Amino acid sequence: MNISITFTLNQEQSDALQERVDLHNSSSLTAITPSEFLKISELDYYIQTLVDQRYAASLTRLGTAAASLPYAERQALIAEIESQLP
Known about the structure:
By secondary structure, the chain is mostly helical. Helix content is 72%, strand content 0%. It is elongated and about 60 Å long.
C-alpha cells in the first residue's frame, strides 16, 4: 500500500524539522530530505506501534475467550499454539 501524506508546517515547525534533518545529514554518509526523515524517524515507528497494539489486542481477545474454557482445554490450546511456534 502506498500512501501520500501532505503536511503543512508553520515556520517554527519547519525550522525545527530542518534543523534535525541537517543534524542527521551532518553525521551520516547518506543525506535525506525532511520527508524521508519523517518517514524513517516517526512514521515507521508509529505504524509499528499500531501493528504491536493490534497484535496485543488479538492476544488479549484470545486469552479472554480461552479463560472460560475448562483448565484441561486451556492447557491443550496452549500446547497446540506452542507447538506451532519456532
